[in-house]
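Today's session is about reading a structure prediction critically. Students often jump straight to the picture, but the first step is always the sequence itself: look for stretches that repeat, for charged clusters, for runs of hydrophobic residues. Only then move on to the predicted structure, which in these notes is written as discrete structure tokens rather than atom positions. Here is the chain we will use throughout the hour.
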Amino acid sequence: MDEKGIEAFYALSCELTGFDRVELDGTGVGNIYVEQVTKNIGPDTVATLFRVWSDIENRCPQGQREREIAERIFDEPELRAAAERIVMLWYTGSWYYVPPFDTQVVSAETYIEGLMWKAIRSHPIAAKAQGYGAWALPPPSAA
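Below is the predicted structure for this chain, in token form.
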């Protein structure tokens, strides 16, 4: 995928996941995800998805994008399936062939860097320890 496609992937991923670009880059697995999306969704669907997203991004102010994504991406079955898989990939580090049954963890690294851990304010068991004595502290607040 070219640089323009990678930028579209990240911009759409930010919009779909609710995480900003710095947070997504910080996972260190974005390039792996770009490969997974291209390989599993296919270049034609990816091109259509990014073309629709680019139009939304360029035409709509920030506050209207959610509605446009719902109407133009999530109302189109093929694009919806692609967008859902991108979200699940970022959150779980797994590729969902047929959600929720046929799944494959992309790699140990992608599982560890899944956004689900940040979203629930936890850590992947046995992979990123919270530190000595963390068990004695109350969980972080949702505020």
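Discussion point for the tutorial: The radius of gyration is 16 Å.
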